[in-house]
Amino acid sequence: MSAEKLLERTFNFAEGELLLINKPYKWTSFDVVGKIRNSLKPLKLKVGHAGTLDPLATGLLILCTGKLTKQIDTFQAEDKEYTGTMILGATTPSFDMETEVDQEYPLTNLTEEAIYAATSPFTGDIQQYPPAHSAVKVNGERLYVKARRGEEQELRLRFVSVPVFEITRIALPEVDFRIVCSKGTYIRSLVSDFGKHLDNGAYLSKLTRTRSGSFLLEDAFEVTDLVEYLKNKREKLSAEQPTSQS
């Protein structure tokens, strides 16, 4: 959404606002929450997000403020849509570009027909393990913290739904895709399993969340635009306050 659209909005952050944000690359979801919360000072408001995005992912992040934070679980439960790119012929421990390639595979035996057909086992109701490098908590600690210490963890199988998994471009080693999935689906795990199904390897190189429920990325604000708007609004309100007379 353009910065000009902000001027057309009227916000009531205390009562509760739902903010659609385009999360920048390498920002954590909590980075975005913190940035917006700080921009709302001196108001002491609750700010939370409805569905974590990995730091290397971009796209739609739903933020709720004030009383609307009570509805975060409702927004988080909605299905999500993603577009992205996977790299075939290699794997990484994190299933994405956070870690270095640890194994490589030849691409000579891969055909476009096999790649298209490989989506079928991962469409519908499926089971998957979360990545070892993920924010899932085990005994109160995030898995990625344990993974970075080199600790092995027993991962629990989870059930998820993937109504749509389509290949949109093949230019080996790159393969573009579009996925619609339920809450809790790990696209990195899906990509890794996809590579294994092809008797090859795969890791995620790019991921963008384009939709969450009925909310679309095209309607989202850029973080910098929203922060600038809130800063200007705060300064304007401060300037309008009557000064005390001595």
UniProtKB/TrEMBL annotation:
Catalyzed reactions per annotation: uridine(55) in tRNA = pseudouridine(55) in tRNA
The protein's enzyme class: isomerase
Keywords: Isomerase, tRNA processing
This protein's record includes keyword DNA-binding: no
EC number of this enzyme: 5.4.99.25
Active site: D54 (nucleophile)
Ranges where the Pseudouridine synthase II N-terminal domain occurs: 46-187
GO terms under biological process: mRNA pseudouridine synthesis; tRNA pseudouridine synthesis
Family (UniProt): Belongs to the pseudouridine synthase TruB family. Type 1 subfamily.
Protein name: tRNA pseudouridine synthase B
Annotated organism of origin: Pedobacter lusitanus
